[in-house]
Amino acid sequence: MTLLYLVRHGETDLNTKGVYYGWTDDGLSPQGIKQAEKMAVMLEDVHFDTVISSPLTRARETAVIVSRSDPDRIILDERLKELNFGAWEGKHYQVIQDHDKENWDLWVKDWKKASPPAGESFVSMYRRVKQSIKETLEKYEGQTLLMVTHQGCLRIIMCILLNMKYEGYWHFTFDHGAYSLIDVEQGYCIVKKINQKP
């Protein structure tokens, strides 16, 4: 049996501004640090055999706090980064609608395959996240795992583990500093907890 703890990173200052910032590297805000610290207390009785994180600072900082680990112990996986919003990084969706309406409309209409200018598509992100979660579960079978990543990645991971289609992505939301617990046994995944907060 593998126990997979999935955690969304704590809040950042950019989160409060409502802008797209997939690959923009922003650290935790004071509120985000508090969220991670509360999560660490909530999970203090859990021993994590392996800790895996997105390499982006907000996720790495959360992983260190929640796991109470030395930063060098954390495995960084590039495939667990948020969607790359390209030219839209750091911009509010209203600004994009006003100044890049053609690309915005295309992205909304074909959300699976279209991508922001110089960014990546949902399908591209889905493929890398799928590769990551499958390899992780095979390599660390039987362990208690902590994986710290982003909203988009967590939605995709849930779709993959529960054998849902792409559209299942829209049926999940994960709060900052919240965790979900998946029990994986003989290829079957059971959701024990979802979006749990202190």
From TrEMBL:
CDD domains found in the cross-reference section: HP_PGM_like
SMART domains for the chain: PGAM
GO terms for cellular component: cytoplasm
Residues the entry annotates as binding substrate: 8-15, 58
Pfam families listed in its UniProt record: His_Phos_1 (PF00300)
Family matches, as NCBIfam families: ribazole_cobC
Record-given protein name: Alpha-ribazole phosphatase
